[in-house]
Design goal:
alpha+beta, 2 domains, two-stranded parallel ribbon
Length: 112
C-alpha cells in the first residue's frame, strides 16, 4: 500500500443533503466525504451540472423550505390520509434532528 494512503472507517459518497446529514450524524473522526462536483464557492447556479453536483447537492441553490399541501409538484393530487401518512414518516425520520412545521390544516380534500 502507498505510504500516503489512508484507510477510513466511513466513506460517504456524495455530499448532497443525505450524504452531509449522514456524515454530520456519525461525527466520526476517521471518515471522508467525497463528491464528483465542485466546492460550493466554485459552483455556478446558471450551469445545469453545477446545480445538481457538488457539496450541498441540488439543495445548495434552494431556499431550504419543506413543501406541504397544497404546494409541491403533484402533491395536491394526494388524498388527505396519504398526506398524513407521508408526514408521519417525515416526523419519524427527521423529527429527532430538526424542527418540523406542523401538518397543514386541510379544509377540503383535493379534487382529482
Amino acid at each position: 500500500m502507498n505510504e500516503h494512503a489512508h484507510v477510513y472507517d466511513y466513506l460517504t459518497v456524495g455530499a448532497g443533503p443525505a450524504g452531509l446529514a449522514f456524515a454530520s450524524t456519525i461525527k466520526h473522526p476517521n471518515s471522508l466525504v467525497i463528491d464528483l462536483g465542485k466546492l460550493a464557492p466554485l459552483r455556478d447556479r446558471n450551469h445545469s451540472v453545477d446545480c445538481a453536483h457538488g457539496y450541498g447537492g441540488a439543495g445548495l441553490f434552494s431556499d431550504g423550505k419543506f413543501s406541504f399541501y397544497p404546494s409541491g409538484s403533484g402533491l395536491w393530487k394526494c388524498k388527505g390520509n396519504e398526506l398524513r401518512m407521508a408526514y408521519r414518516h417525515l416526523e419519524q425520520d427527521l423529527g429527532p434532528y430538526c424542527v418540523l412545521p406542523p401538518f397543514p390544516q386541510i379544509s377540503a380534500e383535493p379534487q382529482p
